[in-house]
């Protein structure tokens, strides 16, 4: 498990080596909350909680399902893009874009509980990355970017007045910054704040993997805005350090949370110190002259730093109940009556996909019909979790005794390159099925091609490749290994030393001896990192008297 807390008063970046992309965060009292985009996975919009900005746990999902009926199918790269979270007069607000459907708002009094049904406050395609803002005079505003793929242009930020309750827009939409007129190409992801009479818009520019963090400021909410670049990669290994949240501590320290796109693993989360000079923020570390003046207007990312000051005693900091050293969950023994927070489905789930059996410490997954032509990457009921760290392995144990003819159950590693390994059953017996596939995207539509091979299992229990009990138990190991680094050109700009990973699936019938290895170089999905998980699918052309299912005993990480 990746642990950012070094246990000596310092932390290391990234604080989360997992694909919590497009983060936004707030502090309410002594609690920090962070959210991230979730695209077409459900439940959507993970909510993370921390007491110190370094140690985080997923505590809730804002959306049980993605709004709109079409997300009953996986629509890779669509769905919920970069959200914003705010707290105003006792209410938590989450505003999120769906680039094809509109801008949505949902609220809660208790962030750990149920959130309201989302309201589409600006129907229509094109606007993305919204952020609500409440001014001191009671007026409210929404700032947002645009997606060229939906509206035909990019690098423009719009502002519009919003109703005080955040549930409708009431003003005229105005362009407040056009990155096409200067050197701020692909400016997007705006987050709005106010300090010392200035309105600030923190916005990434320059592209996901190659960009920087820009800050705009103005004395008028509608501008004109001046700007500076306040965080750049410099000579560090942290490419594209941008898009995130300015957040303070109870002691008045300022910090900035942002992501770094590391290709297959997705967009991992960093925490940078932030200071001010002449009412401009500088993020990361920077050099000063003899008078304390910054030598450059921007900082560069830190890889290790002193933890944020929470203003409490060393005794309190050492109390794990008050300040837990933690990370998002990985292992799951399926001993609860609901899904663990590490899991998301490949599409909006139906209520009968899973049955919880905490008394037996298993989860029952029911086979879901799929057309024979549907590729594994588009199975609706893939149950998926994010990569855990740069290198890892995990084992999933499952019982297949209740498979029916036409069922295929196993594990999957899902990205633009994907693999699946498991057991297929038909009227003649059981087969080890290996699937390798590739997703190609054209105009935001996925076109997948895949290769499937089946090898018959022996019916002799003494043979190596055979079930060893009536439970028909199998163990599937998934492993990720770093195999080197590669330089890329992204939008005409260099990304040096991008990591490369090899992912592998193997199967065992006795938990000791693994075989039928299936491997490929990992490649991120559509705007998301690679995910691994479990599934059981049914070929809809084959009709049975009853529905097949599997029992998943555990997933354990090494």
UniProtKB/TrEMBL annotation:
Record-level Gene Ontology MF annotations: hydrolase activity, hydrolyzing O-glycosyl compounds
GO biological process: carbohydrate metabolic process
Site (Important for catalytic activity, responsible for pKa modulation of the active site Glu and correct orientation of both the proton donor and substrate): residue numbering on this chain: 129
Domain Beta-xylosidase C-terminal Concanavalin A-like: 332-558
Residues at the catalytic site: 22 (proton acceptor), 188 (proton donor)
Keywords: Glycosidase, Hydrolase
Pfam families xref list: GH43_C2 (PF17851), Glyco_hydro_43 (PF04616)
Record-linked SUPFAM superfamilies: Arabinanase/levansucrase/invertase (SSF75005), Concanavalin A-like lectins/glucanases (SSF49899)
UniProt family annotation: Belongs to the glycosyl hydrolase 43 family.
PANTHER family: BETA-XYLOSIDASE, BETA-XYLOSIDASE-RELATED
Protein name: Beta-xylosidase
The species this protein was found in: Lachnospira pectinoschiza
């Amino acid at each position: 498990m990746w642990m950012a807390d070094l246990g000596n008063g310092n932390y290391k970046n990234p604080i989360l080596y997992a694909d919590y992309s497009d983060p936004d965060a707030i502090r309410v009292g002594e609690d920090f909350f962070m959210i991230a985009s979730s695209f077409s996975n459900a439940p959507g919009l993970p909510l993370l909680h921390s007491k110190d900005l370094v140690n985080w746990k997923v505590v809730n999902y804002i959306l049980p399902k993605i709004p709109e009926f079409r997300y009953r199918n996986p629509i890779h790269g669509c769905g919920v893009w970069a959200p914003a979270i705010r707290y105003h007069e006792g209410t938590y607000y989450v505003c999120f874009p769906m680039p094809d459907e509109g801008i949505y708002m949902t609220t809660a009094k208790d962030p750990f509980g149920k959130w309201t049904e989302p309201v589409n406050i600006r129907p229509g395609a094109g606007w993305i990355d919204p952020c609500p803002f409440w001014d001191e005079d009671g007026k409210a505003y929404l700032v947002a970017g645009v997606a060229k793929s939906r509206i035909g242009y990019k690098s423009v930020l719009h502002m519009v007045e919003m109703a005080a309750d955040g549930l409708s827009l009431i003003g005229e939409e105005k362009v407040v910054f056009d990155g096409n007129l200067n050197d701020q190409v692909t400016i997007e992801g705006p987050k709005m704040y106010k300090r010392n009479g200035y309105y600030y818009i923190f916005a990434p520019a320059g592209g996901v993997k190659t960009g920087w963090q820009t800050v705009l400021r103005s004395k008028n909410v509608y501008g004109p805005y001046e700007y500076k670049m306040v965080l750049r990669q410099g000579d560090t290994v942290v490419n594209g350090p941008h898009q995130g949240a300015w957040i303070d501590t109870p002691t008045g320290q300022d910090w900035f949370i942002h992501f770094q796109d590391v290709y297959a693993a997705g967009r991992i989360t960093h925490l940078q110190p932030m200071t001010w000079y002449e009412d401009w923020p500088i993020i990361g570390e920077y050099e000063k002259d003899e008078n304390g003046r910054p030598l450059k207007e921007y900082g560069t990312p830190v890889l290790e730093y002193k933890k944020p000051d929470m203003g409490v005693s060393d005794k309190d900091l050492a109390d794990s109940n008050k300040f837990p050293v933690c990370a998002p969950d990985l292992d799951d023994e399926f001993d609860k009556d609901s899904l663990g927070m590490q899991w998301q489905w490949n599409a909006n789930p139906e209520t009968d996909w899973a049955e919880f059996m905490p008394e037996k410490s298993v989860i029952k997954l029911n086979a879901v019909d799929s057309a024979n032509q549907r590729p594994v990457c588009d199975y609706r009921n893939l149950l998926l979790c994010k990569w855990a760290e740069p290198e890892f392995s995990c084992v999933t144990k499952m019982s297949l005794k209740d498979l029916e003819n036409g069922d295929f159950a196993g594990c999957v590693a899902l990205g633009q390159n994907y693999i699946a390994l498991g057991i297929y059953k038909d009227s003649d017996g059981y087969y080890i099925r290996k699937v390798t596939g590739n997703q190609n995207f054209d105009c935001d539509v996925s076109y997948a091609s895949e290769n499937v091979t089946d090898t018959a299992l022996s019916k002799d229990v003494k043979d190596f490749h055979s079930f060893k009990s009536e439970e028909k138990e199998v163990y599937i190991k998934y492993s990720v290994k770093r195999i080197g680094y590669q330089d890329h050109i992204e939008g005409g700009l260099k990304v040096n030393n991008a990591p490369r990973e090899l992912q592998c699936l193997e199967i065992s019938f006795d938990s000791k001896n693994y075989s039928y290895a299936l491997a490929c170089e990992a490649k991120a999905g559509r705007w998301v990192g690679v995910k691994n998980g479990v599934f059981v699918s049914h070929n809809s052309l084959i009709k049975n008297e009853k529905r097949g299912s599997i029992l998943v005993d555990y997933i354990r990480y090494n």
